[in-house]
Amino acid sequence: MTSAPPVVTRFAPSPTGHLHIGGARSALFCWAFARRHGGHFVLRIEDTDQARSSDESARGIMEDLAWLGIDWDEGPELKLPDRTVGGDPRSVGPFFQARRVHLYNQYIMQLVERGRAYPAFETTEQLEAKRKAAVAAKQTYRYDRAALRELPEVKDRLKRIESGEPHVVRFLAPAEEVIVHDQVLGDVKYGEGEMDDFVIRKADGFPTYHFAVVIDDELMGVTHVMRAQEHLNNTPRHVALQRALVRDDADGRPFKTPVYGHMPLIVNMDASKMSKRDKAKVARAAARRFVDAFSEDDLFVRFEQVWKETKDLPENPRPPNDLKETFGDFLSGESDSVFWAWVMSRMLGIELPEIEVSDFRQNGYLPGPITNFLSLLGWNPGMKLPNGKDLEKFDNQFLAQHFDIERIGKSSAKFDRAKLLSFNADAIGALTDEAFAAEWRAWCRTYEPALPNHLDDRRWLILARAVKQRARTMRDGVKSAAFVLRPDDSSEFDKAAVEKNLLAGDRAGLKLLAEFRDLLAKIDPFEPAAINSAIEAFAAGKGVGMGAVAQPIRVAVAGSPVSPPLGETLAVIGRQGALKRIDTCLATLSPNR
RNA sequence: GGCCCCGUCGUCUAGCCUGGUCUAGGACAUCACCCUUUCAAGGUGGUAACACGGGUUCGAAUCCCGUCGGGGUCACCA
How far apart are CA A327 and CA A280, in angstroms? Predict the structure, then answer.
């Protein structure tokens, strides 16, 4: 055991999918706060929902955190090529809640024995009926304590628990007012009688979130809890639990209440909560449009086909018993599965909103601008640059040195992708050509393998240099580089561009192109600078502007009027390829054909 | 609906705690112009906000009250 760190923060995701972008900000702030104060940042996996948790999700979340540069001092170990993250220096693990059930049970029994918790036997259906009745009568539903009245004596409660009869355990909520001292929001009061007897252990024997959090935060010595404001209303329950519990070890002291700070929510541009469900919403809306235009059966045929194609992907969940039913559930809104949303997006050719860290990674965002942008959602360093402008570009290291709870804002922040995109573009622009070439190549190898396979190192660097300043994301760069993948003998050309740049004015462009073709064969070396000056000299010799020469060439080699500068474009294509493309163009547009 | 939180340009925000220096600053987006072989990039400039109503005060974006508006949460999910 090492001595207790001055500050212990934690991030406690449930492994039911990828890391949510909002979760990433929570983790980032907790990490930064721990760093700032020389403390520890703990990663704990809250997998008490057996049905929805998976090891793959836990692993994915850890990889995404590490990718963002958020390393945890304590928690499950993750071996990376360059380092290992995690560990258990204070012996407070394990860090998967499913492996801590014995601890929770110990404290559940403590509460039952001391009369602060009791078993209850209603079925979910019975409870649901009561809840509905209360809503119908326009009353606030609260658990009616029927089970408590049934078992007034502690010894009878213990007996019933031991009998093996299915039950949940409920916490006997205190009647008194609870004040949460929040570092961000100030004192938040919850009046007496607001809390009901919430469940602390489910029928399957696992603790509920509320209970597990309180036990683990105490046992792991968490000093500061920073989380999103959606949890604010849970906090009085946690405080009540902390007041009711004492440590099971020798000193038997009461539980401590950590310092709380509730961060503003990150929401969509329409102010709704940003959640994974948004993917399903977008996919469903598109699917319904399709159904309106065609038919549900048509959609299902395509759905089945895409599903079969993607069957072996790791994201694919267990095969459903009835695909038609799964399909129906998704369409009706019964299910909001991210995976089925993805299948829908594939078959309908639509883009899903980026919600999870992996979405941004796939779409070619860099980790630096993501954490930088995230830092500014609900926090601000409040510093000026020497030129008087606000300081807002910084890295994780800066955050770790300057982050403070006092400067966390109170109002929710809309997630403006346009600004993130701009940050990402700036970060790409700040890379050296060589660094960008390497990063871009690495990204392409995973997400767009055709492109790098096509080019050697020399040409890749020329391409990367040309693409860098027009790429806001790695994926964007692929668009600018589309000309690389064009077959040299392709006879498809942008129609309007052919008219405008090659055929207009009695085929003036085409004539210049034919003349330039022979010059091109002689340019030496076949490098961007030499090619560019050859084109300039050619234009000057003809007494025409650069545009009159450049656009015909561009259309001929790229098939479209848009490409990186011609020197670079031609050098990447190579002399032979360029000649072939121009010849194909000339032949295609020849009047004799 | 109950409970809780919030309210500065379209968006993220600085300023608010410790009223005057705020004719409210920056960034993204947007518009115009410049540069330019296309697309970008870059440069210059512009439009644009203190939710509303009452107080307190010589003076309010800043303090107080109310109204309105937005959001969160009300599970054997976390």
Answer: 12
Q: Which nucleotides of B are covered by protein (CB under 7 A)?
A: 1-8, 10-15, 25-29, 36-42, 70-78
The average pLDDT across A485-501 equals 93
Residue with smallest Cα–C1' gap to B25: A389
User: Is the minimum distance from the CB of A525 to strand B below 7 Å?
Assistant: no
Computed over every residue of chain A, the mean pLDDT equals: 93
Whole-angstrom distance, CA of residue A497 vs CA of residue A483: 15
Residues lying close to strand B (Cβ under 7 A), chosen from 29-68 of chain A, are 46, 48-49, 52
Listed residue (A553, A563, A555) closest to A481, CA to CA = A563
Q: How many residues does chain A have?
A: 593
- Token output for A15: 């492994």
Q: How far is CA A28 from CA A46, A367, A483, A532, in A?
A: 18, 12, 40, 47
Q: How far is CA A263 from CA A23, A69, A166, A375, A410, in A?
A: 11, 21, 38, 11, 7
Tokens of A11: 């991030």
Tell me, what's the pLDDT at A304? 87
Contact status, residue A179 vs residue A189, Cβ threshold 8 Å: yes
- Token pair 């990490």 is at which residue? A31
Residues forming a β-bridge with A11: A43
**ipTM, two decimals:** 0.95
Per-residue pLDDT tens over the stretch A135-176 = 888 888 889 999 999 999 999 999 999 998 999 999 999 999
Asked whether residue A418's C-beta has any atom of DNA/RNA strand B within 7 A, the reply is: yes
CB-count burial class (<10 Å; 0-12, 13-18, 19+) for A147 = buried
For the four alpha carbons of A464, A467, A468 and A473, in that order, the dihedral sign comes to negative
Beta-strand pair A84-87/A75-79: antiparallel
Q: Where are the beta strands (DSSP E) in A244-290?
A: 259-263, 266-267
- Residue (of A224, A225, A238, A229) closest to A274 by Cα position: A229
Decide if pLDDT at A368 tops 60: yes
Whole-angstrom CA distances from A261 to A235, A397, A405, A409, A503 are: 10, 22, 7, 11, 67
What is the phi-psi region of residue A527: left when phi exceeds 0, alpha when psi lies from -120 to 50, beta otherwise? beta
For tokens 């004799």, the residue is: A592
The reply to whether the CB atom of residue A413 sits less than 7 A from any atom in nucleic acid chain B is yes
A303, A192, A274: which is closest to A20 by C-alpha?
A: A274
